[in-house]
Specification:
Glutamine Phosphoribosylpyrophosphate, subunit 1, domain 1; about 30% strand; about 250 residues; single chain
Amino acid sequence: MGPHIALEDIIVTPEHSLIEQSQAATEAKLAVNGDGFGFAWYSDDGDLGLYRDILPAWTDGNLLSLSSMIRSKLFLAHVRASTFGQVSRSNCHPFTSKRWSFMHNGQVADFAHHRRLLETHLSDQRYAQRVGNTDSELFFLLLLDYGLEDDALTAISGVLTLFKSLEKRSSAPTRVAAVLSDGERLMAIRYSSDQRSPSLYTKRHTDGGLFVASEPLHNDAQNWQSLNESSVLIAQDTSQVTHPLSL
């Protein structure tokens, strides 16, 4: 988020770009993330664009072309390693609704067992929006139903508290590293029930822009800050505030 850049400046050209991470991630649960990819970007008018495909990011020539031509002040990009849900375009991140975009690494505790219960917490409107079958998409729709538009921190805390309540009936942990935006703010969430959240780093660019990434994109790891466990970062323009989560 910041001054306009080409998407390739994140996806293609850095030493540890998103395409490089899709083939050789160093901190993710799986080194290869080849179950699809996608990116969402915002125009100067606040319109939201979305491109997703099931191909591995490194094999899609369209991605290289698009990422060199599209410039944006704010965008989200994701490569997927499936933990639940088949490889399909509807299960690829980012997920979008009106002006919101969302992507997620991690897992909801024992999701296959708790999926039906979680879906009962969706309103009819949000349930009708559900087109895939991942825990990530459901996480996003729950955030919207819990009031993301009005009070993001309360919505995030409410949904994570719901996930935490499931852990009493599950031996599996909940682990979350998520990034979302409404076109004006960029938010990042890092939380886990076992203090083993997926990695999430931030870096301020010299032009005032903000990078948020699962792994440092450049060979300057000392300039990247790990987002604290159990916290939410909210950034807008050149300001950013990290809020602790108390669940």
